[in-house]
């Protein structure tokens, strides 16, 4: 495991105010060991090459799929075992979604960060259980919520025992089948929550329910939204990525192709440098 990747394991620092720029990336859902490792190894190389802290993301259960027939993932026990294999092979820290309070303790034994899905960001029992693990927690903003309304979610996590909390903007509903990103959101959430404000550039291009019972998406807009969010002051990025998004088990219409991740991240870092923003801390 490289020195750069070893340094990224201090994720508590990243989830504090002014913790430094970083990237959360990976497939939507835990897939085969071969696929998981292929993505993980590409992310580890990217982290080393660009001196950028990267946290590997994949969900062991997609409990909020639109269609009852959609794959949900391998489940908590097998999913966590698969995630652990990625960590052992790459040294990358891990983040995964939790949907039920009873999943939090088990997930915290393996992963470095727990993530609260946007639909569940007001579920008090879940937020408290995640905070009680003491692990960093990323709370995704509900699609119906204003940025300042995330203050309560963050307070629940901190009150339960986790001081390291971040919030993530992933778009707000605008009519039917559309999400919009308010670029003021990063400053507003940061001020309201005293926490890093992350931008989810892949879920923000979703078109919920537009894909014949599943969510559609417009991934061609990912780069422009990411660039805008970075210029607007996003503290970190969240990007789901896959070698062949159309063959993925979830979010096939809005994941970023893996071969397009590096050029986009390089552009982001160049933008930050041109604006005089602090370099990533490794």
Automatic annotation (TrEMBL):
Residue ranges of the DAHP synthetase I/KDSA domain? 20-261
Q: Name one GO biological process term.
A: lipopolysaccharide biosynthetic process
- What Gene3D superfamilies does its record include? Aldolase class I
Q: What is its EC number?
A: 2.5.1.55
Q: Name one GO cellular component term.
A: cytoplasm
Q: What is this protein called?
A: 3-deoxy-8-phosphooctulonate synthase
**Record-linked InterPro entries:** Aldolase_TIM, DAHP1/KDSA, KDO8P_synthase
Q: Which domain of life is it from?
A: Bacteria
Q: Which organism is it from?
A: Longimicrobium terrae
List keywords of the entry alphabetically: Cytoplasm, Transferase
> Member of which family?
Belongs to the KdsA family.
């Amino acid at each position: 495991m490289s020195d750069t990747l070893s340094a990224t394991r201090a994720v508590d620092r990243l989830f504090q105010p002014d913790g430094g720029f970083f990237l959360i990336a990976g497939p939507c859902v835990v897939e085969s060991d071969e696929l998981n490792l292929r993505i993980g190894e590409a992310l580890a190389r990217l982290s080393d090459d660009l001196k950028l802290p990267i946290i590997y993301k994949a969900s062991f259960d997609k409990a909020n799929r639109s269609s009852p027939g959609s794959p949900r993932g391998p489940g908590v026990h097998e999913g966590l075992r698969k995630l652990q294999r990625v960590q052992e092979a790459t040294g990358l820290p891990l983040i995964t979604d939790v949907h039920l309070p009873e999943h939090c303790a088990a997930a915290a034994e393996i992963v470095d960060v727990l993530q609260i899905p946007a639909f569940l960001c007001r579920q008090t029992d879940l937020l408290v259980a995640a905070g009680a693990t003491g692990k960093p927690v990323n709370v995704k903003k509900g699609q119906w919520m204003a940025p300042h309304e995330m203050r309560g979610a963050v307070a629940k996590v901190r009150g339960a025992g986790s001081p390291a909390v971040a919030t993530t903007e992933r778009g707000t509903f605008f009519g039917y089948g559309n999400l919009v990103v308010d670029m003021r959101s990063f400053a507003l959430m940061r001020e309201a929550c005293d926490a890093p404000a992350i931008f989810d550039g892949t879920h923000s291009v979703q078109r919920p329910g537009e894909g014949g019972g599943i969510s559609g998406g417009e991934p061609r807009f990912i780069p422009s939204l990411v660039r805008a969010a970075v210029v607007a002051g996003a503290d970190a990025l969240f990007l789901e990525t896959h070698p062949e998004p159309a063959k993925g088990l979830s979010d096939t219409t809005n994941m970023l192709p893996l071969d397009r991740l590096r050029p986009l991240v390089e552009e982001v870092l160049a933008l930050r440098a041109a604006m005089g923003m602090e370099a990533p801390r490794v």
